[in-house]
Amino acid sequence: METIIGGADSGAAPAAGDLIKDTDTRNFMADVVEASREQPVLVDFWAPWCGPCKQLTPILEKVVQQAGGKVKLVKINVDENQQIAQQMRIQSIPAVFAFQDGQPVDGFMGALPESQIREFIDRIAGGIGPSPAEQLIEAASAAREEGDFATAARAYAQLLQEQPESPEGFAGLIRCYVELGELDAAQEVLDQVPVAISLHGEISGAKAALDLARNTGDPAGSEEVDRLQAELDGKPSDSQVRYDLAEALLSAGRREEAVEHLLHIFEHDREWNEDAARKKLVQLFEAWGPKDPLTRPTRRRLSALLLS
Q1: What is the CB neighbour count within 10 angstroms for residue 113?
Q2: Which stretches are annotated as coiled coil (predicted)?
Q3: What pLDDT score was predicted for residue 18?
Q4: What is d(CA 44, CA 111) in angstroms, rounded to the nearest whole number?
Q5: Residues 13, 14, 19, CA angle at the centre, nearest 5°?
Q6: Picking from 213-227, 246-260, 283-297, which range would have the lowest pLDDT averaged per residue?
Q7: What is the distance, to the nearest Å, from the Cα of residue 94 to the centroid of all Cα atoms in its chain?
Q8: Where are the beta strands (DSSP E) in the chain?
Q9: Catalytic residue at 176?
Q10: Which structural domains are found in the chain, ordered by start?
Q11: pLDDT exceeds 60 at position 265
Q12: Residue in 8, 32, 50, 206 annotated catalytic
């Protein structure tokens, strides 16, 4: 399967149209006060020299467009419109006010992250719904739960078109390729992870899943499991044999049995091979992820042993 990162067309954002405009003191009544009687209007007070304004305004524009016409955005340069800024008692910028029915009803100052801006607009406009990126993550997660990893991979690839530094996008795509057995493709995606997010928990978990898949290789035959089990029956205190059996069981997809052997090693021979059993369990937790039904109870049992 060819690596599909960067191959999806995310589509262009809808045109701003009448949703976003600049105004001034002379047109404030028409563009803000009167317009807010039809639908909520956000007023963004900014200035060309304001660094945080340059961060905030593009996010405001993006979320307003995604709201699908439920709210408008009006921008006012305070340097050119000091009278209205004084009337609104603007103390610092950026400052955003929400108008409804001709009156200011809410607002905030400073540059907020997109998630908080979305919550603010959602509160004002009422149910603008998840962003396109959030919709893609939901669609990808649903496809993964159904075992449709190819569809999930396409959704994650499209997410990376929307958000090129999305940890969820990179990690999800890597995990999909691992599930599909396309380990070289998974490594290719991992190699493209930006440095800024390389230590993110999602990325670490996906890397652990890839490392685990590479180390386990092809499923072990029943003969190998049986052989190691017979050897362990004769030498029940041999941690190396028990560890090898756990690895073989993991390769065979018998995760619960493998976990039991790793926990047994940690409980009875904690320092064996530089704490190899605990390290293997931690790798499994990262690879499986916190939502895996085996992760939480096993992590809880390991913690209990650590405290005992």
Answers
A1: 11
A2: none
A3: 76
A4: 11
A5: 125
A6: 213-227
A7: 28
A8: 20-22, 41-46, 72-77, 95-100, 103-109
A9: no
A10: 20-126 (3.40.30.10), 132-200 (1.25.40.10), 222-307 (1.25.40.10)
A11: yes
A12: 50
From residue 173, alpha-carbon distances to 11, 138, 158, 178, 300 in Å are 20, 14, 10, 9, 29
Q: What's this model's pTM, rounded to 2 decimal places?
A: 0.57
The pLDDT assigned to 15 comes to: 45
Per-residue pLDDT band at 130 (split at 50, 70, 90): low
Phi, psi of 222, deg, nearest 5: -65, -25
d(CA 201, CA 72): 37
DSSP 195-224: GGGTTSHHHHHHHHHHHHHHHH-SPPPHHH
Q: 273 — phi, psi (to 5°)?
A: 50, 45
CB-count exposure of residue 299 (10 Å: 0-12, 13-18, 19+): middle
Q: What is the pLDDT of residue 43?
A: 95
The residues that bridge with 42 in the sheet, in sequence order, are: 73, 98
Say how many residues make up the chain. Answer: 308
The two structure tokens encoding residue 87: 């009337």
What is the distance, to the nearest Å, from the Cα of residue 239 to the centroid of all Cα atoms in its chain? Answer: 38
Given 8, 53, 76, 112, the catalytic residue:
53
Rounded to 5°, the CA angle 8-13-17 comes to 160
